[in-house]
Amino acid sequence: MTVSRVLNYPQLVAEPTRERVRASIRKLDYMVNDLARPLGKSRRPVIGILALNVATTPYSVSITFAIEKLAREHGWRTYLVNTFSNSPPANVLDSLLSLRPEGVVFATMGHRLVNVPERLIRAGVVLANCQTSQKGLACYVPDDEQGQYDGVHKLLEQGYRRPLCIHLPEGSPAASLRRKGIQRAFKEFNIAEKDQAHAVLSPKPESIQPVQFRDEPDFLQTAFILDDALRRSPRPDCVICANDRVALVAYQYLLSRGLRIPQDVGVLGFDDMVGVGGLFLPPLSTIRLPHEEIGEAAASHIILGRKKPGIYRVKCPFVSRASF
Amino acid sequence: MTVSRVLNYPQLVAEPTRERVRASIRKLDYMVNDLARPLGKSRRPVIGILALNVATTPYSVSITFAIEKLAREHGWRTYLVNTFSNSPPANVLDSLLSLRPEGVVFATMGHRLVNVPERLIRAGVVLANCQTSQKGLACYVPDDEQGQYDGVHKLLEQGYRRPLCIHLPEGSPAASLRRKGIQRAFKEFNIAEKDQAHAVLSPKPESIQPVQFRDEPDFLQTAFILDDALRRSPRPDCVICANDRVALVAYQYLLSRGLRIPQDVGVLGFDDMVGVGGLFLPPLSTIRLPHEEIGEAAASHIILGRKKPGIYRVKCPFVSRASF
Predict the structure, then answer these.
(1) Angle of CA points A128, A152, A201, to nearest 5°
(2) Band of residue B322 on the pLDDT scale cut at 50, 70, 90
(3) Cβ A29–B79 below 8 Å, yes or no?
(4) Contact A81 B81 (CB under 8 A)
(5) What is the ipTM of this complex?
(6) Hey, which of A38, A47, A208, B284 has its CA 20 to 30 A from B224?
(7) pLDDT of B219-235, one tens digit each?
(8) B223 in contact with A, Cβ within 8 Å
């Protein structure tokens, strides 16, 4: 009772007692279990983060990084729960919702379509890096179309005219938006169809994929695609890569064939992949996925109590280095 | 009261009432806030995960993946809180400990030495991928020495005799253990000192590092190191790389110089880096950091109530591919 009074109504407790209690609290590392407080009483607010594969794969971790950073700056707490299936099982939702979060960010590894469980919608959810056809939700996603358009535009400005495009497997918003961006830039520079080459990566059979990498194509196909394309005459003078991992395989293949980057072949990446983007020789010009900005926007949505639903597209900046 | 009775003593409530209450519960998505229950009463137990940079960098995320997986299989819950500073700030510890976890896994991005806050020790902490000089704690770490020894042994078995070693910056357990492993294998194969070449990566100035990559060396130095080493006569016939990222830069440099892997130069990696290990042309022979096994062991330690402190070294398996 005295401890409770010291914490909640210190003015009712005599100074010496107050000090004694406080010293004990420090010594025992006592903490108010403030999740146990009934709703409505003051407690530090919570953002729940439900991460679909995000924290187990290297590509979108900056999303959760940014959410946690912003939340802490505002005195909010965050708890992250990972899920590895497209429809999170009930016990995962139980875990997250038992913390009574003020809002939940549902974040995915790649820009994709999701179906949001009703329970998350009732808890107040905002989507990061994914979108849905369900009404009334706010979704923060990368502007793949703008990013890809800008990158290809920069490439063509350098004079390259016979592009080989290596596309992501069809079916994701990222894949179709990037195709649109490429076509818009090609049109602007009058790249004739006969001067364009296109190849599409096919997904790996699911059986041989570790669970973290489900839905990933086999990037080594890039070598076969290039081998084939370089036999043609005239050969492509640049490669527009589905992402930096494709570019990584393309680099090794081109360099082993004695082709110089960017003099003989220009290369454009996509993602500015964390931890790898800086390891290319010569450094890779690419398009950065704005994962930090997306995480920050999603967290702000909850912290600032925004209500407006819709799809918010976040700019993908071009990163100019030395591969064209 | 009736709701509480239905949940806790259903046999005291008449069947029709019970059903009505249960239907309402389903409809309202009511959940027992079981973190709010006093300690001692039954609730689903919790593992707290305090991740130092783990979830914001691509290299050790499998640790948290494995903890969450095992915990769920045992009906435990997990909550992950990231921290970005070597001494986690008080509010981060508050967040984690207010959940009253049965135990906490403190996991770090790379195998390193840490100083564990007293509050975590009192809460029951186990270390994953890091170790400490503080007494009484259990630490699960990769057996870098064994892994590096095995890898170099396999390389020398193939007949390579003039190794160039590119080492991690000194100061971490990983760096010194790997050096020991290399020297043990060299001794066994009588590799004379004059036939060995050694270079040490230096850390990047902290000012130009994003917070997620603090403590990382500049891997592009690899190109300068190789450039220098290849001028010597006789030149090295294989490269023992500090990790897969060094190997990635080495590949590009060697291939651009017209050298073939493995015919002209053999390459050995370390890490089997998630998402990148499979993108080498030819595929990289490397040593896998046992991140999943470490996460699983740390989680088991808590779930099974193990008490024995000590440093547990987890085997690093050699991954045989095609780079030597």
Answers:
(1) 65
(2) very high
(3) no
(4) no
(5) 0.84
(6) B284
(7) 999 999 999 999 999 99
(8) yes
Interface of A with B in 257-296 (CB under 8 A): 258, 260, 274-276, 278-281
Would you call B81 and A82 a contact, using CB atoms and an 8 Å cutoff? no
pTM: predicted TM-score of the whole model, two decimal places: 0.85
| B33 touches A at CB < 8 Å | yes
B97 contacts A31? CB cut-off 8 A: yes
Neighbouring C-beta atoms of residue B202, cutoff 10 Å: 11
pLDDT digits (tens, 9 = 90+) for B66-86: 999 999 999 999 998 888 777
Residue A199: φ, ψ to 5°: -140, 145
Chain B from 69 to 128: CB within 8 A of any A CB: 69, 72, 75, 77-82, 84, 91-92, 94-95, 97-100, 118-119, 122
d(CA B144, CA B289): 8
How would DSSP label each residue in B17-51?
HHHHHHHHHHHHT----GGGSPTTS----EEEEEE
Per the structure block, which two tokens stand in for B50? 């305090």
Report the b/e string of B298-307 with b at 16+ CB within 10 A: bbbbbbeeee
Q: How far is CA B159 from CA B197, B259, B265, B286, in A?
A: 17, 18, 11, 17
SS3 label, residue B240:
strand
**Interchain contact, A36 vs B36, CB within 8 Å:** yes
Nearest partner of B45 among B76, B21, B16, B90, judged by Cα: B76
Which residue shows structure tokens 């706010």? A138
Q: What are phi and psi of A221, to 5 degrees?
A: -55, -25
